[in-house]
Amino acid sequence: AQWRQKYNKGEFNPARYQNFKSNFMAVSAKNNMERNRALQSGQAAPPPIQLNEYGDCSAEEYRAIMQQNRNNPAARRSAPAANSNTRTGLQPTNDFNNPNANRQRQQQMAQASSQ
After folding, report:
1. What's the rounded Cα separation, in Å, for the pair 70 and 64?
2. In terms of pTM, does the model score above 0.85?
3. What's 30-76 look like in SS3?
4. Which whole number is the average pLDDT over 54-62?
């Protein structure tokens, strides 16, 4: 519920929840792995990765949105943070304070799903 509120996701959607749950598990596993690796090497644990506004997207939806952003310079977002995890498609965002970000994301998802 907190994540949905933070990103203005509206009412609960069971299909989107399945994507969210899968992405949450992937992020949790990555965070645990990185924390354990740091502890074993005697280093401080890195800051955990968190789900951004794309946390309820499937991998296909996310790739389509990112491809659309690459093809449309006007829709480009700020560069991902240094701790991004591009192999799983989960990237932190720098525009979570932007009230238009969710609206733009919804438009991108609608366009991507209609293609």
Report:
1. 10
2. no
3. HHHHHHHHHHHCCCCCCCCCCCCCCCCCCHHHHHHHHHHHHHCHHHC
4. 93
